[in-house]
Design goal:
Strand content: 15-25%
CATH architecture: 3-Layer(aba) Sandwich
Strand order of the largest sheet: 3-2-1-4-5-7-6
CATH class: Alpha Beta
Bound molecules: S-adenosylmethionine
Order of helices and strands: HHHEHEHEEHEHHEE
CATH superfamily: Vaccinia Virus protein VP39
Distance between the termini: 53 Å
Length: 216
């Protein structure tokens, strides 16, 4: 098998795993996939090279966050871009209310059109803005993926966390180093950071996340 065939086979397998794990939600995931590889690429929100790993690297990698989020939570997804992880999370978890926060108008337009087309508008909301400028908006869970390193991200996101809530940041292999770099902020605000993995049987490598809560 050459590299191209291997990539197609990996992606086909990833879509099949999504269909098996989230069977009821799979048609909506597929429709979102269509938005990402269609308008997402045409409008420059998604790199063309991501198309062949859209399920594996992006949709499944985001949807597995559902394992970490408490039931019926309100969620703000900071720096949602083309909707990751917020839209896959909202699709596979119909109990959640998700706000997608994104500063760039082009991306906000894409997000709103996608949310409307997927019929998610009653519980998925799009706000244009920067996390550090948001006033009077909080949620029980604040998510982010590929937005900023933890020390900066904490300063932006912790004010958006409702009392008793948490930040769940998707991170890669650098998670532990970022937690160390954020030690001052964590101490000052009396927060604890826990590194966890999710997505067993669905994504390889597993998705690493950092969960940040008030020390109780
Ligand atoms: C690399 S993209 C990641 C997008 C998406 N989360 C993903 O994983 O594909 C970073 C996103 O964060 C947004 N962003 C940058 N600074 C931000 C801020 N201060 N507040 C909210 N979003 C921000 C950018 O506009 C961009 O869409």
């Amino acid at each position: 098998m050459n590299a191209e065939e291997a990539s197609v086979s990996r992606e086909t397998e990833a879509a099949a795993k999504a269909a098996e794990r989230w069977s009821a939600a799979f048609p909506l995931l597929e429709r979102y996939h269509g938005w990402l590889i269609g308008a997402g690429v045409e409008r420059g929100l998604v790199g063309p090279r991501e198309v062949e790993r859209m399920w594996d690297r992006h949709i499944n990698n985001s949807a597995v966050l559902s394992e970490a989020v408490t039931e019926n939570a309100t969620v703000i997804d900071v720096g949602s871009g083309a909707g990751l992880p917020g839209i896959p999370l909202a699709i596979v978890r119909p109990d959640l209310k998700v706000t997608l926060l994104e500063p760039l108008q082009r991306r906000v337009d894409f997000l709103q059109e996608t949310v409307d087309d997927l019929g998610l508008h009653e519980r998925v909301f799009v706000i244009r803005g920067r996390a550090e400028d948001l006033k009077d908006v909080q949620a029980e869970v604040v998510t982010s993926r590929a937005v900023a390193a933890l020390p900066k991200l904490l300063g932006w996101c912790w004010p958006l966390v409702a009392p008793g809530g948490e930040i769940i940041a998707l991170k890669g292999a650098q998670a532990a180093a970022e937690v160390t770099a954020a030690a001052n902020y964590l101490r000052k605000k009396q927060l604890q950071a826990r590194i966890e993995t999710v997505g067993a049987g669905l994504v390889e490598p597993l998705t690493t996340l950092v969960r940040i809560r008030k020390i109780t």
